[in-house]
Amino acid sequence: MNQHSSIEAQDRPARLTVGVVGAGRVGPALAASLQLAGHRPVAVSGVSDASRRRAGELLPGVPLVPPAEVLARADLVLLTVPDDALADLVSGLAETGAVRPGQLLVHTSGRFGTAVLEPATRAGALPLALHPAMTFTGTSVDVQRLAGCPFGVTAPEELRMAAEALVIEMGGEPEWIAESDRPLYHAALAIGANYLVTLVAQAKELLAKAGVRAPDRMLGPLLGAALDNALRSGDAALTGPVARGDAGTVAVHVAELRKHAPQAVAGYLAMARTTADRALAHGLLKPELAAELLDVLAGPAPDGAAGRSAAGHATAAGEWPSSDASTDTPTATPTEDERDHDAPHGSDVPDTPTTPGGPATPGTPATPGIVNTPDAPGPSDTPGASDTPNPPAAPDDTPDTPDSRNPGPHGGDS
């Protein structure tokens, strides 16, 4: 249940009528959360049968109307559509005169700040960017999960208090993100959440090929402990053959993957190179062991891009340094990015119950730190709203597939 007791009366926004444009997984859940805080959902737009069903379940009795009608009825409008559809939708609504002066217009995209709302701002709207760093299922469980969820907040300075109050009323924790930092912020969440899902799914497939009957049960304790250790200790939590410099083991891995899952080789090599970089920079990988490891990992970089060795040397595409070169520098100087962004606080999490963590990985210091993980972002499969004077119904923020209730990145931050 959302906690609202910490909001002082003078900081609370007035009770507002709320509308939702794009009834995917995100919008109805946020509107339902605002309803718990005393606001009143009055209108929602949705294109597909799945979106209409979600709206009916999370916002019973709230009428389904076209986007322009949502804006006509609501003081606070949530624009929860895919990133690529947002700009055209805003332009179209502004050109048709649907935007009213003084109306709060909120989008939930992780990528954008408030600049994308400029056409509506010129029409008198009050722009807010409130991005919940969480994955959504499109069910009522999302409303409970908003408790303690970090929100990336961007707004004009004069609207900052109102934006943060709305987040707190939804049970979230506001984190201020500058307009210019939104793309980097969103990229960090994508790396942490989207690619984690890819890695876990690939690991499950490989375990199944190896004859493991319940890959999820085998991975659960290991991944739970690894995630907890990584959030607590950053690079100090690195373990495994790459961090140890076990070149022979890595060579066997690559050979087995080439034989049984060739599609996984490129990803394994890319992650191994990055892990070697970080392990060497952090002092975990001994320089004298790096040379043989680099020989094993040598090969074309993805898409022929130039790479950087585990010793920190720039290399041409597909070229790794020789064994001698790899030991020239005992440790690589970490870049500013590596120092400042090892463990972004707003990482997305899968929409599944928290997996019980196993015992701490041997050799990993149990340094106190952040242990909660809040999603981010997901691809959209719908075209952008038209920017003609008569825009069509806004696209929903998630694909309408049979598994739309399954865990996945929420469309509001696609």
Provide tags for this entry.
alpha/beta; 7-stranded mixed β-sheet; disordered C terminus
Largest sheet: 7 strands, mixed
Percent strand = 5-15%
Q: Which secondary-structure class do the elements indicate?
A: alpha/beta
CA(first)-CA(last) distance: 26 Å
Number of separate helices: 15
Q: Outline the low-pLDDT stretches.
A: 1-10, 300-392, 398-414
Describe the structure.
The chain is an alpha/beta fold. It has 15 helices and 9 strands. It has helices at about 25-35, 50-60, 65-75, 85-95, 120, 140-145, 160-170, 180-210, 215-235, 240-245, 245-260, 265-280, 285-295, 325, 335-340, and strands at about 15-20, 40-45, 75-80, 105, 125-130, 150-155, 175, 305-310, 315. The protein has a 7-stranded mixed sheet with strand order 2-1-3-4-5-6-7. Strands 8-9 form a two-stranded antiparallel ribbon. The radius of gyration is 24 Å and the shape is elongated. The two termini are about 25 Å apart. The model is unreliable at about 1-10, about 300-390 and about 400-414 (pLDDT under 50).
